[in-house]
Amino acid sequence: MVNKDPEGRAMQFDPAYLKIAPGDSVKFVATDKGHNSETILGMVPEGAETWKGKINEEIVVAFDVEGIYGYKCSPHFALGMVGIIQVGDSTENVDSAETVKLPGKAKPRMAELVAQVGDGATAPAD
After folding, report:
1. First CA to last CA distance, the chain
2. I need a surface site. Which of 13, 85, 112, 119 has the fewest CB within 10 A?
3. Residue 33 lies in a domain
4. Which helix or strand (DSSP H or E) is residue 110 part of?
5. Domain Blue (type 1) copper: where (predicted)?
């Protein structure tokens, strides 16, 4: 969770798109202050758990259900601070994720991320 990503975009998750395996966990780190990570309702697979981290909180989320998970930073949602995690190869819920109403810059940013789904991008190596 950063105020500026490597491409110079303000208020971003870096990386904003991840593809992981079922059973993997993701750690959200508030590198810059004033951010959180939480589920965008309507953008998780059926039967999947949602999450809501507190501002400035490092949170680890485990992903057991395959599909597309959309998430946001609550204070910077309208500024386009959103991300997608693809768990496994399933893109079954991507259509429902695309129909969720998003405010301001979140809509075009999410469209960029949805375009990456299925392209084979993966989590960065530690």
Report:
1. 17
2. 119
3. yes
4. helix 106-114
5. 7-87
Indicate the SS3 state at residue 44.
coil
**Structural domain range at position 37:** 2-114
State yes or no: pLDDT of 124 exceeds 60. Answer: no
Q: Which two tokens stand for residue 43?
A: 């953008």
26/92 Cα distance (integer angstroms): 21
CB-facing half-sphere around the CA of 58: CA atoms within 13 A: 4
Residue 33, SS3 per DSSP: coil
pLDDT band at 80 (very low <50, low <70, confident <90, very high): very high
DSSP string, 47-100: TPPP-BPPTT--EEEE--S-EEEEEE-GGGTTTT-EEEEEESS--TTHHHHHHS
